[in-house]
Design goal:
This protein has 202 residues and is mainly β. Helix content is 5%, strand content 47%.
């Protein structure tokens, strides 16, 4: 337990690794305005990861991002998004019982054909973009998550197959029903503008 202020992201590159806290008593946070992820699972040094990472678990922690202001992309690695949790080319990765909030980009992002991903029983809120974003994803289970007060969408996916999606509660920035959208990244701004124009979202 305890509170930990990061000056750079935690990078997990070892297979069979578990990062486990003690629930809300374990807090990992980024400084306000920091332009970096909090946790990166996988290879970040190359735009396309050089290898896949297997059997990683993140669970039972509170993760607080750096808030909405600043760039969505890392300055030194401009292909790396400043989401709180980034999974790059992961396989059999579990994200469970986290409280993730105040996210610059998506709160939880999987990319580069991450497969056999399990995202369960998390509370995801106050993302500047999406609560959970799946980019070029393989089999993914999303179940039992509370998604609320995320600006663009609760869940987005660019490409997904063989997956199960279910949420305990899905609410938009203003507390009304949010949406699940299958889309490519190029349509994000368009869909966000449509959402902002809907009745009851202002």
């Amino acid at each position: 337990s305890g509170e930990y202020l990061l000056d750079n992201f935690i990078n997990i590159t070892r297979d069979g690794f578990t990062l486990r806290g003690q629930g809300a008593d374990t807090v990992i946070r980024l400084p306000d305005g920091a332009e970096t992820p909090a946790i990166v699972v996988g290879d970040y040094r190359k735009e396309t990861p050089g290898r896949r990472i297997h059997d990683v678990t993140l669970e039972k922690m509170r993760l607080i991002g750096s808030g909405p202001d600043g760039s969505e992309l890392h300055a030194e690695y401009p292909y790396l998004r400043n989401s709180v949790v980034v999974v790059r080319a992961g396989e059999r990765v579990t994200v469970r019982e986290l409280q993730v909030s105040d996210c610059r980009s998506a709160c939880i992002l999987t990319e580069y054909h991450s497969s056999q991903i399990t995202i369960v029983d998390n509370v995801v809120s106050h993302a500047a973009w999406d609560g959970i974003s799946l980019n070029r994803g393989g089999r993914t289970v999303i179940r039992g998550n509370l998604l609320q007060d995320n600006v663009a969408a609760g869940i987005t996916t660019e490409f997904l197959r063989g997956s199960v999606v279910g949420v305990r509660c899905l609410r938009s920035y203003t507390g009304v029903l949010s949406f699940f959208a299958g889309m490519v990244l190029l349509f994000r701004l368009f869909l966000a503008s449509i959402w902002a124009a809907l009745p009851g979202t202002k």
